[in-house]
């Protein structure tokens, strides 16, 4: 059995495309709708550490209270940024995918191909029609 987890927002096209790429590899992931079930602080910190990024690099600006909360201020500590994400999960960028091969913020969605433990099973097009994987399961460069 292959374990894959996606921190997902079904209203986000990138998140939907990432989920579809996972399924195109024949994997049914654990889907965590993180706006309904946010990660704990410890889980969020672990995800950030495993991705090898800073909390600021995980911040989502568009469609969030980023500006209102003054999160552009570069003097804010990592703890302050994580506090904001805990209070407002919409600030957590998505989708985050966890596999045995690593953890990635999958923006753009095809980044998920770097960590999927199974190959693509056929052609894949994003919702906008962009061809990402050809009919033989090979990623388009």
How would you describe this structure to a colleague?
It contains 4 helices and 6 strands. A hairpin with a 2-residue loop joins β3 (96-99) and β4. It is α+β, with helices and mostly antiparallel strands and 141 residues long. A 4-stranded mixed sheet has the order 2-1-3-4. A two-stranded antiparallel ribbon has the order 5-6.
Largest sheet descriptor = 4 strands, mixed
Query: What's the multimeric state?
Result: single chain
Number of helices: 4
CATH class: Alpha Beta
In terms of per-residue confidence, which ranges show pLDDT below 50 for 5 or more consecutive residues? none
Average pLDDT rating: 97
Q: What letter string, H or E per element, gives the SSE order?
A: EHEHHHEEEE
CATH H level: which superfamily?
Glutaredoxin
Beta-strand segment tally: 6
CATH architecture assignment name: 3-Layer(aba) Sandwich
Residue share in β-strands: 5-15%
Strand order of the largest sheet: 2-1-3-4
Overall tally of structural domains = 1
Q: Outline, from the CA principal axes? A: elongated
C-alpha end-to-end distance: 29 Å
Based on secondary structure, the structural category is alpha+beta
CATH-assigned fold name? Glutaredoxin
**Roughly how many Å is the radius of gyration?**
16 Å
Helix content: 25-40%
């Amino acid at each position: 059995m292959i374990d894959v987890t996606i921190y997902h927002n079904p209203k986000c096209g990138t998140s939907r495309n990432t989920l579809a790429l996972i399924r195109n590899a024949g994997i049914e992931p654990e889907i965590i709708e993180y706006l309904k079930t946010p990660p704990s602080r410890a889980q969020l910190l672990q995800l950030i550490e495993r991705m090898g990024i800073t909390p600021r690099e995980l911040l989502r600006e568009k469609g969030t209270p980023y500006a209102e909360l003054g999160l552009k201020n570069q003097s804010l500590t990592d703890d302050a940024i994580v506090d904001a994400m805990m209070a407002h999960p919409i600030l957590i960028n998505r989708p985050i995918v966890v596999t045995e091969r690593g953890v990635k913020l999958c923006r753009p969605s095809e980044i998920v191909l770097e960590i999927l433990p199974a190959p693509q099973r056929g052609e894949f097009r994003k919702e906008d029609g962009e061809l990402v994987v050809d009919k033989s399961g090979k990623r388009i460069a």
